[in-house]
Amino acid sequence: MWQRASLKQRLIVLMLTAIALVWLGAAAFTYHDAREEFDEVLDAHLAQTAALLLVQTAHDLDVLETEHAPLLHKYARRVAFQVWEKGQRLRLHSANAPQQALTNNERGFSDSTIDGKGWRVFSSWDESGTYLIHVAETSEVRAELAGDIAENLLRPLLLSLPLLAILLWVAVARGLLPLVSLTREVERREPENLAALDTSSSPREVMPLIERLNRLFARISASLQKERRFTADAAHELRTPIAAIKAQAQVARAASTESERNHALDNAILGCDRASRLIAQLLTLAQVDTLDNSVMEACLIKDIAAEVIADLAPAAVAKGVELELLTDAEVTVRGNPELLRVLLRNLLDNAIQHTSSGTSVQVNISHEPAAACLSVSDNGPGIAEDDRARVLERFYRPLGTQASGSGLGLSIVKRIADVHDATLQILAMSEGSGLRVKVCFRA
Amino acid sequence: MRVLVVEDDALLGDAIQAGLKQAGYAVDWMKDGVAAEQALATEPYAAVVLDLGLPRLSGLEVLRRMRSRHQLNNIKSNQSTPVLILTAMDTVDDRIRGLDAGADDYLAKPFDMGELAARLRALVRRASGNAEPMLQVTGVRLDPAAHRVLYRDKQIELSSREFALLHALMLNAGKVLSRTRLEEQLYAWGEEIESNAVEVHIHHLRRKLYPELITTVRGVGYLIPLDKLPQDEDA
Fold first, then answer.
1. Contact (CB<8Å) B11/A244
2. Which value does ipTM take for this structure?
3. pLDDT by residue (tens digit) across A243-252?
4. How far are the Cα atoms of A179, B4, B29, B56, B116 from residue B187, in angstroms, in the given order?
């Protein structure tokens, strides 16, 4: 509940609590201080009264007939005195004073309770030691005074808290305005709108949030764009083989000779093979693109290479190409074995396709400083220097490439290398023509 | 009728070449933009089928250069030859760009072979200033789509070369076409041209139709006059 409360409510509750606490603290201190002060003043007053009474008593008590003095002020009802002769006989007292002694104390201040009534008493003997005087004040007076002070201190707080709450509400609302407008802007956005949020009018506190959001928007928009481009490219790339199949089929239907028909039909079948290979490669690429590298394990490259070479041997033999596996050590690499097989298969496919018959394609596995490397070399025409970077782009086919290529093989290899944090190099063979593609995994 | 096909995809190019041959065209097939440009600079074509995504030189660039080339003294520059763009990129923007660069028609892959042939016929017809699908000159009617020639409402059997020759002459009725020009119209690159082949075909045409249809301009070439009436019609 508290976690979900609005920022505004939270701020207001916290601020009001803080204000009330400080105020109460100040009030408590003031109250305490005031109480001490007036206790002292009232005590002094009692002592003063006692002193006066003593002086009076010394002179006039003999002539006084009355036993009690008249009350002169409303507070006088609460102030009482007793004059005891020798401390034994009550000679004089105020009307409101009890009959028994106000205190047993004979000198200085004391507190006592008589008939359930609290008294603050000052006692003193006159100079001659004849009379004991108690001057007292009901504790009620002090309690009442203290209550008044406390009330005066707390009343403004109670009155001002609601007013403060209203003012704070307005102030907080104004203070949070930039946040509200930011929320509105995000709320109003179309889901497709991935443009960056305006940072010019935003408060410093939300800048990191906006920057994060903007970075996220940028990333999403980039990946969306990539996906759209890929889909468009893929659709576009599939159109040409399908157009070829259709056109070949129509040529076959209209052919006037058997050989013309067969040529067209063979080409139509080739076109189908090519389209299905392209689709398979597209699926592989999509698979690599969506793969997280959670399925990494230690892979023995030699075993993977042997497996892939065995798979491709029939195709190589059919083309008159020899496949060789050269390895100098047991090289282990952390990776996804399925993807590593796809990587090597693509490299070997390319090499077998481009090398001339009667030559060999070599798979080399080697240890290098801080890396484990896998390379595939052929004796084909190689790739021109200018084209080497571009062949990694999807669907790029250098001039003179056979139509059977999907234009995706090396981009798949590149993508798998990226997933494995491996480097990919396209090199010319040192002697004569040929291509060497080298993938190095960090050791 | 000689057309240039520019397509980098081997299977598709092969199919277009075969299909257009079936439709009676002599077809040159180029696989990249630079080769296409060279072909356009040296050979006269009745029409061009152009892919856009070409290696070395993009299709649009080929088209732009072809349209902006000045004729100079070379009549073979193909500056106004009709061009049909054949491409997998078929958004409206792509079409607009293609047409604005000087294309006459646009066909998206995958396409129908028959439609491609028909569109080419229409382009060639319009380029020769003729909206009528049937060509008619002095009693002879030629239907390019059906590959038929009618003379006095009777169908005349012609070989495909004879048909192509008659088609070229009728399209350019009233103009003299040189022997070389006619040869270029009949044969694609790499096809062997038999010596005096044009003479032989002209001879056959005169025999199958009527002798006065085609006039020989000695040392220059041949023409079909616009309004010459066959003599035996009077008889």
1. yes
2. 0.72
3. 999 999 999 9
4. 77, 12, 12, 27, 20
